[in-house]
Amino acid sequence: MKTRELAIGALLAALSLVIPTAFGFLRVTIPPWTATLTSHVPTMLAMFVSPIVALAVGLASGIGFLIATGLAIVAARAFTHALWGVLGAMLYKRGMKPWLVLAIILPVHALLEALVVLPFGYSLSQGLWVVGVGTALHHTVDAAITLAVLGVVLRAAGRPAVKV
Fold first, then answer.
1. In this structure, which long-range contacts are made by residues 107-112, counting pairs with CB atoms below 8 Å and at least 24 apart in sequence?
2. Residue 89 falls inside a structural domain
3. What's this model's pTM, rounded to 2 decimal places?
């Protein structure tokens, strides 16, 4: 990993910790689903840096939500960011356009978060309809924000800007 990638990863990981802890006023809750606007953006941006950065930032997101809420179910959902983040980073490394990467990982993201609530006593219907659909909508909003600021991150990483 290059020094520049490490620095960007550290900044994105810091954002993953700060967003859930300092921006709780942006949180919407419909149990077992919660959404904090912009909380996916650091992991989504990390995907376009490298798979290892996406993994680290996704793990930081889980830690941030555990600190912010103290709820294992919320943290478990956030820890899934590491999985879909690495998948998205691998797709991007294969040459896919950013918008396509974000579109492909949407159902993976929604399904992971829907399934992770099942061991906490929620039904498959609650998981799929409340968490899955809610996550898909939240993913879409955060993906739009990600695409809006992606050029800045790519320039910081020393990479050429791409058409999103």
1. 107/136, 108/83, 108/84, 109/40, 109/80, 109/84, 109/135, 109/136, 109/139, 110/135, 110/136, 110/139, 112/80, 112/83, 112/84
2. yes
3. 0.95
